[in-house]
Fold this protein.
Amino acid sequence: MKRVTGIGGIFFRSKDPQKTKDWYQQHLGLNTDAYGTNFTWRQESDPEQKGATQWSPFSSDTNYFGDTGQDFMINYRVENLEALVENLRQEGVKIVDEIATHDYGKFVHIEDNDGRRIELWEPVDEVYDKYIEGRTS
């Protein structure tokens, strides 16, 4: 069974997320929207299918990452999230929350051996693609 298939997103704390998005747009050319920007790519196993990696600054007081000492969180793309979570439970990995299901995919948070929160995402790329406004290519 495959576990991680790619990076789904890079999320980090920012004192002023809008100002950060504006800075990256002005100086590095990122085409940002309300959430940051999205880097779209083609899947190696099927170049007809798109994949995406989200880049998002979050407010410095977000609790989405868990511990306030954690400045960033990586979202990993996975296949078959339910089976993976069951395997991780059996391996003693801390599962932070229940699997959340949305039309664009399933999500769950786990912690690594250092207590760093990680987000796992089983995407539905065709649906997720419809939500994206800010794209950088």
About this structure: The longest helix spans residues 17-28. The chain has a mean pLDDT of 94. The chain has three helices and eight strands. Residues 19 and 131 are 22 Å apart (CA to CA).
